[in-house]
Amino acid sequence: MADQVQVGAPPADKVVVVPDVPLAEKPPVAAAAAAKEPPPVPESEEEPVKQKQVEDAEALETKISDAVADGDDEEKVPQSGHYKEESTRVADLLENEKKAVEELKVLVREALNKHEFGGFAMPQQQQQQQPKDDSAKEEPKPKAEAVTETVAETKEESIAQAETGDDEEKVATATVRSDAVEDDGAKTVEAIEDTIVSVSASVQPEQPPEAASKEPSDAKPNVEGKDAETVSNKVLPQEVSIWGIPLLADERSDVILLKFLRARDFKVKEAFTMLQNTIRWRKEFDIDELVEQDFGNDLEKVVFMHGFDKEGHPVCYNVYGEFQNKELYQKTFSDEDKRQNFLRWRIQFLEKSIRKLDFSPGGICTIVQINDLKNSPGLTKWELRQATKQALQLLQDNYPEFVARQVFINVPWWYLAVNKMISPFLTQRTRSKFVFAGPSKSAENLFRYIAAEQVPVRYGGLSKDGEFGNTDAVTEITVKPAAKHTVEFPVTEACLLTWEVRVVGWEVNYGAEFVPSGEDSYTIIIQKSKKVGCSEGEVVCDNFKVGEPGKVVLTIHNPTSKKKKLLYRLKTMPASA
């Protein structure tokens, strides 16, 4: 296949020559960052607020309509501020952020050592329970054990008397029993400890084999006092994993901890509490088992993954208009059990998507969300609103910083009014991650972040099953109003030339012809110029078998007063193939 070249946007009535196969035009890359879904709309508002909301909505609708009618470059839609996705490398962080990461790691390490994740017992509790468990045994004891027990009771009695300031006569009496009389209370305790160790060592050979096997710590006479107690009560650190990544295992753990820190503005204690709650919730929700469950394929058109953005983030599409299907809506939201099932399905979908991400430093560990609001049921569907609200809360609490960008397309006027109402309650960082586009600008906004070959056909792109794949680059050109644009594909040898062409919104005239290089040759009409309406064929796929040198010429005539986005790509195959 011949080399591909990139084609820019030429002026009207100008010819663009493309040597064989064009490359996709690569506009500047837009940065993306993780974000949360917008909070739910308040249930009720005071009358003045409602009146102002209606006025704002009407004003926004008027502005949008005027923008569409005038053919402005941008609709009067609230746009996000510029936001740069933060680094996931600890070395790139500010000093205070690095310190926060280290402090959080210390807290996590202590919690793992104490088994504080998942409701396990702490080692201290185990140590306190250990003597009680031993004393609770009602098995017959040898004489030697009885002696040891008597001395141990003497030790406890003496320590209690020494600490409470009892008279020295009682302390001395207890000391005589242990063959270590001392005047000082502290020395008395030490003598008692030595006596216990010596008595235990001397009577050890008299213990039956069964008793020795039950108390292995006593079989080590060389280990004394507190050291023996530490060895017998040593507990290994707890092992906890989240999204398949063990905590504090390697650099990937730092990426996980950074998500919780950023979700809490690097407030270490709050981030640690959030992490604890998330791990506890995952255990209660039984996430690992949930991932393996089968929920059927009824909702596969509602939420689905498709392609990647220009930064390499996987793209998730949420199509709320699918719930206009009354049968699907009732099957999903008609009662509490079904709403809970929908919630579990949504969590499962997100879990499977997250586990495919790259948590290594510098890797892609966030997702781009595309929210299609075309024909959305809106706020009138109480069941949908409740399920969405509950899902949103769970995602905010347990999946921090997993959304690189939130793009809302086919946005109706009422949603813009709602967004304007809740925007003051969002941080600038959160608002900067949102992008809104009305129906006439949805495809254009998608192309800012996602290459046309990765965008599904239904949203203005060229991604579909057929001759071309998602890796076959697309060239994007803007056709000016009331202008004619031509693209030429020179051919130097016999081959089969195949191309795809699309004009977003169409309402233009399209034609194709082959012009041979020979002076005595005649032009061959491949496609007679015809008007293509917005409802006719979303993508035109054509081919022509070339038998002599020449060029294939595509002509796009835009008679409207609006700019049009032209997309095309082609490939050649040898005539022998």
UniProtKB/TrEMBL annotation:
Residues 292-467 form the CRAL-TRIO domain. Residues 471-572 form the GOLD domain. Pfam families: CRAL_TRIO, CRAL_TRIO_N, GOLD_PATL1_C. The keyword Lyase does not apply. One of its GO terms (cellular component) is membrane. The keyword Nucleotide-binding does not apply. Residues 28-90, 117-186, 200-229 are annotated as: Disordered. InterPro entries: CRAL-TRIO_dom, CRAL-TRIO_dom_sf, CRAL/TRIO_N_dom, CRAL/TRIO_N_dom_sf, GOLD_dom, GOLD_dom_sf, PATL, PATL1-6_C_GOLD. It is found in: Cytoplasm; Membrane. PROSITE patterns: CRAL_TRIO (PS50191), GOLD (PS50866). SMART domains: CRAL_TRIO_N (SM01100), SEC14 (SM00516). GO terms for molecular function: lipid binding. Belongs to the patellin family. This is CRAL-TRIO domain-containing protein.
